[in-house]
Amino acid sequence: MHTYLSMTVAGQESGMDTEGVLPFAVDDPLLTSAEAADMLGVSRWWFGELVRRGRVGPCARIGGRLRVRQSVLDRYRAEQAGDPEDPYLAYDDIGAYLGVSSWTAGELVRRGLLTGTRIGRRVVVRRSAVEAYVEACTR
Predict the structure, then answer these.
(1) 91-122 pLDDT, tens per residue?
(2) Cβ atoms of residues 86 and 50 within 8 Å
(3) Which range among 23-27, 33-37, 38-42, 102-106 shows the weakest confidence by mean pLDDT?
(4) Among candidates 58, 51, 59, 3, which has minimal Cα distance to 27?
(5) CA-CA distance, 115 to 21, in Å (whole number)?
(6) I want to staple 95 with a disulfide (CB 3.0 to 4.6 A). Which of 27, 32, 64, 105 is the partner?
């Protein structure tokens, strides 16, 4: 679904396939690690850790520098966002939903009453897990 540059360079066919199309997508650029980190809202170091841990990929080393396609970052962000029908909730959101403090919401996660997922430094919980906890408490 990428838009490919289909202009032929005057008299130059090198680097193009038989149809005169460049072999790379114009709307899917390679980003540096700094650009990728800015796009994800994390530090460059943490972006490197995400790559090393295999969470973001595939990436390429070009000239000793890490490069990643924008489509790879878009896919990673979509995975982290999760299901729009069942979003992740932070401690503040859980506290507001249950009518308790964010500290109490964190205690529910630490005690194992709510199942949390670590994303970076934050722990988040799916709304369905909070609703299941409420259902279990009201029976």
Answers:
(1) 999 999 999 999 999 999 999 999 888 877 78
(2) no
(3) 23-27
(4) 3
(5) 50
(6) 105
Q: What is the CA radius of gyration of the chain?
A: 22
Which residues have C-beta within 8 Å of that of residue 43, sequence separation ≥ 6?
A: 37
Q: How far apart are the first and last CA of the chain?
A: 50
Which alpha helices (H) appear in 86-126, and where do they start and end? 91-98, 102-110
Q: Taking the model in full, what pTM does it have?
A: 0.48
**Using CA of residue 100, residue 101, residue 105, residue 110, what is the dihedral sign?**
negative
Judged by DSSP in three states, 9 sits in strand
Q: In sequence order, which residues have a C-beta less than 8 Å from that of residue 120 and are 6 or more positions away?
A: 42, 46
79's tokens: 């995975």
- DSSP lists the bridge partners of residue 30 as 69
SS3 28: coil
Length of the chain: 139
Choice between 125 and 121, residue whose per-residue pLDDT is larger: 125
Token pair in block for residue 14: 């090198």
